Amino acid sequence: MRRALPAVVGLCALGLWAALSARLPEVLLPSPLEVARALVDHAPRLGEAALTTTAAALLGLLLAAVFGGGAGVLFARSPALERAFAPYTLLLQTVPVVAIAPLLVVWLGYGLKVSVCTAALVSFFPILTATVAGLRATPPEQLDLLRLYGATELQTLWRLRLPSAAPFVFAGLRSSAGLSVIGAIVGEFVGSNGAPVSLGYLVLRSARSADTPLTFAAIVASTALALTLYTTLRRLEAKLIGAWHPGVT
Amino acid sequence: MRAALLLSSLSAMVLGCGDPPAPPTGPSLVPVTIALNWVPEPEFGGYYEGLLSGIYREAGFDVTILPGGPDAPTLELLATGQAQVAIAAGEELLVRRARGVEAVAIWPALQLNPAGLMAHAEGPKTFEEIQGGRVAIGVGSALHSYLWRRFAWEGKVEAVPYGGAIGPFLADKTLIQQAYITSEPCLARAQGAEVTFLRAADAGWNPYGAVVTVADPPPPWAADFARATQRAWEAYLKDPARANAEIARLNDLLAPAVLGCISEAQTPFVTGQDGLGMMTKARWDATAASLVELGLIPPGSSADGAWRLLRVEAPAAPSP
Amino acid sequence: MRFDDARFAWPSGEEILSGLSLDLAPGQVVAFVGKSGCGKSTLLRLAAGLSAPTGGVVDVQGARLAFVFQRPNLLPWRTVAENVALPLSLQGAEDPAAVAAALAQVGLADAAHKLPQALSGGMQMRVSIARALVSQPTLLLLDEPFSALDALTRARLHRELGQILDERGFTTLLVTHDLHEAALLADRVVALGGPPLRVLLDLPVALDAPRGRRDLYDPRVGALVREVRAALGEEAEA
To answer: Which of A25, A182, B46, B62 is the most buried (most CB within 10 A)?
Structure first.
């Protein structure tokens, strides 16, 4: 029953979509069938585009994890450092990615580098805040334990603070996973010149020529991509920390 | 296993996304990258013809064509050395020059400005007939400012943002939208719409449409390049088949019918009233005056130094 | 070890210790009893070096410390054996044999590779004791170690810990509010009042080893418990 419920909701939504699309011109809302046909017709192209966007999102997420996590460790260690830099990290989150994407093209040239950057930009902040929160949430009595046995600062970080922050960091990564896909696609709107083809490029080009079924097919592909990224992270999380951290299925 | 596969294909993508390996270059060839301000389409037909026919190579150039996208910062790519030749709109060149970008136009690809408005066939036939309703346009663009000022549309005609998708136009028979002769009218016709294209040039907005620009001061090869470009475009206008086939291969999202439609529709805009490759002081000065009036460049700015008619300054090139 | 006019106050100025002096003979098991909030946990933290006195001296004379916390305080991502090995590995002195011996001593040799969450509360507490034993301490600090356990488990652990203390002869500080626990495990019971912390009563426990539940019915234990209770009760009324 619990498995059936999402399926029922999904079917209802699909039905609503089909009914609505019957009353609207295709350029506004193509029917599910037309979108499915576009998915099949453009399968190789969509596959290639999805791979490009996956690479951008994943690499962006990786960069964000390295830099966000690293900055998180520094911030958690030094409140002065956090006070000094926190306003500017917030800037990173609030700067409109679309606005700086053309600059990224000038600096980095067309292609993957731009979308990796935009994906990293939007993913950075949630990972940073999650890491700081996680490192600050180390139980004090466990810190006492390590102090008692003469642990060095570095030992405390590696053996206690980081493992105990891991569930927080994973939560941050998960919320960044979907963002990284959006970030990559926005970057591709400006930074992709079609070589290699990417989902953002497909959305843009198909919308321009009113090939709405292809637009929707690209949207379906990006949604599938975000979901895959999310569930992969879930699995990784379950594998790495699921044994001791409850709440991971 | 699946993860390993994904990883290997990912790394392949990362490695593959770098610069393509440079083709072998003869010792005397000048390597030139042409940065386009949009994806491969017929508006760039002449450059592809120059590449494929060997016209550029004969003139001493090893040409690479770098496709662009929306808001392609081609003039900035000149400054970073990622391109030696940039395709840009004439008014864009003047605006950027006023902000310190050092670039100069050496050849005009589109004599007549390709911009305008696109209306449904049952809608207005002239700018003057537009007395209300909504126009989808790049809000804040030079064309937007110019038209609203020229026809006093402020408060009468509503400007709504144009994001590059023609779906809303197709769905709304009363909507008017910004268009380039090299794009939207043919895309709309391919979707079965009957449209009227109102040329901005007829309303007095007539900057050179797409100009070939190089760094300022121009490199020593600029005149040779302008002349080779002139020959390449002459060849393209005579027979666009080869270049169009290449464009179709590079841009397979563009339906063949649309490609043919654009290639045909743009021809009068390429040759213009003064003849292929011609630029006049009067036209450039008029553009500068319009931009000053719109407040897009400082008062007193002129187009002097922004363009050079290199193709007639040097002795005629030997015919290929 | 000894406390000599030891003082401790919070930055807020609240005084917890205002000059406490105590001597502990080597090998002596001392139980500190008192109401919660009287400052007896602070006493233990000072002995452990987790807090520094704001005045006076807390001298542990180079003792190797081990601390058993109120809760098992295990790291959930480390197996039982890895948790027990923690004090050694932090010193870079891995010793699997010592870990196995410590686990055997608390009867958990079979659970070495389990994660803490697979164990009952009593078993986790035993892991915690094994972790304290593994570093061969000379001063053992116990902070209400069994207060969170059910009565049966607590009784069993009293017996086991009593045996270990008899065998190994650590100097031991036991903080508890269970008077019977104090009587069963300690050589000396110190009743504390406060804050600021002060000694209400300092009594020896004159029972022979090994002690067991039977000793709870010994009249000497009854007398001790009554006396301490009276002292603590007076404190409450004062």
So the answer is: B46
List Cα–Cα distances, B245 to A166, A177, B263, in angstroms: 55, 40, 12
Contact B167 A210 (CB under 8 A): yes
Using a CB cutoff of 8 Å and minimum separation of 24, what contacts does C231-234 make? C231/C191, C231/C193, C231/C200, C231/C201, C232/C33, C232/C34, C232/C35, C232/C191, C232/C193, C232/C200, C234/C200
Region C2-63+138-237: CATH code: 3.40.50.300
Domain assignment present for residue A116? The answer is yes
Mind listing the pLDDT tens digit for each residue in A19-44? 988 888 777 788 999 999 999 999 99
The CATH T-level fold of domain B29-112+207-313 is D-Maltodextrin-Binding Protein; domain 2 (3.40.190)
Q: Find the closest chain A residue to C73 by CA distance.
A: A142
Per-residue confidence band for C161, with pLDDT thresholds at 50, 70 and 90: confident
Q: Rounded mean pLDDT of chain B?
A: 87
Residue ranges in chain B modelled with pLDDT below 70: 1-27, 312-320
Whether B and A touch (3+ CB pairs < 8 Å), yes or no: yes
pLDDT digits over B270-291, tens only?
998 788 999 999 999 999 999 9
Please tell me if residue C114 touches chain A, with a CB cutoff of 8 Å.
no
Among the partner-chain residues A139, A144, A163, the one whose CB lies closest to the CB of C77 is A163
* E-only strand ranges, C108-184: 139-143, 171-176
- Distance CA(A170)–CA(A130), nearest Å, equals 8
**Which residues of chain B neighbour A191 with C-beta distances below 8 Å?**
69
Q: Is the per-residue pLDDT at C28 higher than 90?
A: no
C234 pLDDT band, cuts 50/70/90, is low
Our CA angle for C187, C190, C192, nearest 5°, is 160
ipTM value, please give it.
0.85
- The closest CB to that of A192, out of B14, B69, B183, belongs to B69
What's residue C212's pLDDT? 67
Calculate how close chain C gets to A231, using CA atoms only, in Å. 22
- Give the fold, CATH level 3, of B115-203: D-Maltodextrin-Binding Protein; domain 2 (3.40.190)
